[in-house]
Amino acid sequence: MAAAVREVRAANPLAPSITNTVTQNFVANAQLAVGGSAAMVYLPDEGECVAALGGAVYINLGTLLPVYEETVPRTARACAEAAKPWVLDPVGVGIGSLRTELIRAVKAWPAAIVRGNASEIIAVAELWGLDAAADNGRGPRGVDATDSVEAARAAAVAIARFSGGAVAVSGPTDLVTDGAVVVRAEGGSPLMCSVTGSGCSLGGVAAVYACVADPLTAALAATAAYNRAGAQAAERCSGPGSFQVAFLDALAALTPEEVADAPLAFEEA
Ligand SMILES: Nc1ncnc2c1ncn2[C@@H]1O[C@H](COP(=O)(O)OP(=O)(O)OP(=O)(O)O)[C@@H](O)[C@H]1O
Ligand SMILES: Cc1ncsc1CCO
Ligand SMILES: [Mg+2]
């Protein structure tokens, strides 16, 4: 994790995004704060182009446009063909039919990291037919979780075993797994739920680290960085608005050691 943080600062890797219009700015700024480079695109040929240019791609389904019916599968396929890791954030899975279709479609080119809140991870495992234990989810309420992180454990492990990558479930305690180990990470702040895009930008930062590290290390580094920076920002702010500013400052100031020393609890999956 420390090496990933250090290498990103040294190499300034590009992790392009296809991501929602609500939080694009926060995603890009968080990617820059950790030392990465950002580029947001919408069109199918641009997705293929940036898949070739970038070290890893972030795809977030938060606010779909008709063109995404082409952009998302073509970009995921381009990543798979170029052996580039990509990060899936299945925001709002369950809203409308296109989201469902796209998540079904990209099962063919599995993401190196699937990042979402607990309800989204449970819903993806169900959609991909991966895990019978997962269908006790209550389903996302719009873009927010209604399930606990622990309720998504089996779904997260099933997705990681299927993809061969990592799954990061965010919440009060984060859970990250590669299908062999399950890691829990504490920290952050409840204020992160009052700033839209805390999760989206976590996915964007995971993509930056995936440019230089394996999926599990990248997901853990991003999660640990968020927990550290979130806790520090909460001490320095006076509410959600100043929290977001303090959070970006804290993210930019994190040392590799602070990220690597974040408390993590490992167990066998
Ligand atoms: N109660 C909490 N205490 C501490 N940290 C939290 C809490 N809730 C969420 N977080 C942190 O906030 C970040 C985003 O997680 P969250 O589950 O809110 O994502 P999300 O629902 O996908 O967000 P969004 O869709 O708005 O981007 C993670 O780093 C997570 O650890
Ligand atoms: C609020 C919201 N709506 C669609 S995407 C998004 C950002 C948080 O996921
Ligand atoms: Mg989200």
Structural key phrases:
binds adenosine-5'-triphosphate; 269 residues; binds 2-(4-methyl-thiazol-5-yl)-ethanol; 8 strands; single chain; alpha/beta
Question: What does this entry look like structurally?
Answer:
The protein contains 11 helices and 8 strands. By secondary structure, it is of the alpha/beta class. The protein has one domain: UDP-N-acetylmuramoyl-L-alanine:D-glutamate ligase. Strands 1-2-3-4-5-6-7-8 form an 8-stranded mixed beta sheet, sandwiched between helices. The longest helix is centred in the C-terminal third of the chain and has 22 residues, at 215-236. The protein is globular, with a radius of gyration of 16 Å. The mean pLDDT is 95. Bound molecules: adenosine-5'-triphosphate, 2-(4-methyl-thiazol-5-yl)-ethanol (TZE) and magnesium ion (MG). Magnesium ion (MG) binds at residues 91, 117, 143, 199-200.
